[in-house]
Every structure is written in structure tokens, then in C-alpha cells.
Design goal:
- Pfam families: PqqD.
- This is Coenzyme PQQ synthesis protein D (PqqD).
- It comes from Goodfellowiella coeruleoviolacea.
- It is a single chain.
- Helices cover about 45% and strands about 20% of the residues.
- By secondary structure, the chain is α+β, with helices and mostly antiparallel strands.
- The chain has a single domain, classed as Arc Repressor Mutant, subunit A.
- A three-stranded antiparallel beta sheet has the order 1-2-3, with helices on one face.
- Helix 1 runs antiparallel to helix 2 and helix 2 packs across helix 3.
- The radius of gyration is 12 Å and the shape is globular.
- The N and C termini lie close together (about 10 Å).
């Protein structure tokens, strides 16, 4: 599964995370550093499984916990219609 932002969503990385701007609504969504790393990994072509591995390695947590976090992130981004299905 490839993760892609909708064409009218702008992703800007910051020192302490990132911001997504939905140009349709004018709403901003702030992501923490963990979610930013996960989203960047997937936008760069990594699978959700790979993003979970990256998080587990970087933050010394279980792959299970990281996978649950990835599922939550993707679910929320889809619900907000920020990513394509």
C-alpha cells in the first residue's frame, strides 16, 4: 500500500514535527516527531510495516506498539481526507 497526500495537502516538516495544510478547508494539522517520521517514511515509498520497523528501532519500542501507532495515524489521515485511499 502506497501512502500519498492528496494534491491539495501541503506537508511541511519543522524541527519538532510537521504541519499538514488542507488547502480545501484552510485547516492545519500538527504532527509530532514520531508521526512525522512515520509519514515521511511512507511518503518516501515505505510500507506501513517498514514505517513501524523504523519507529520501533528509533524509539526503542515494540514492533507491535509501533504498528498500532501506524494504523492509528493512517486511519486518522484517511478520516480527515488528507491522504488518498
Amino acid at each position: 500500500m502506497t501512502t500519498r497526500l492528496r494534491a491539495d495537502v501541503v506537508f511541511t516538516e519543522l524541527d519538532d514535527g510537521s504541519v499538514l495544510l488542507d488547502e480545501r478547508t484552510g485547516r492545519y494539522y500538527q504532527l509530532n516527531t514520531t508521526a512525522t517520521l512515520a509519514l515521511r517514511t511512507m511518503l518516501d515509498g515505505g510500507s506501513p510495516h517498514h514505517a513501524a520497523e523504523v519507529l520501533a528501532d528509533r524509539y526503542d519500542t515494540s514492533h507491535r506498539r509501533a504498528s498500532a501507532d501506524i494504523v492509528g495515524l493512517i486511519t486518522r489521515l484517511r478520516r480527515l481526507e488528507l491522504v488518498t485511499p
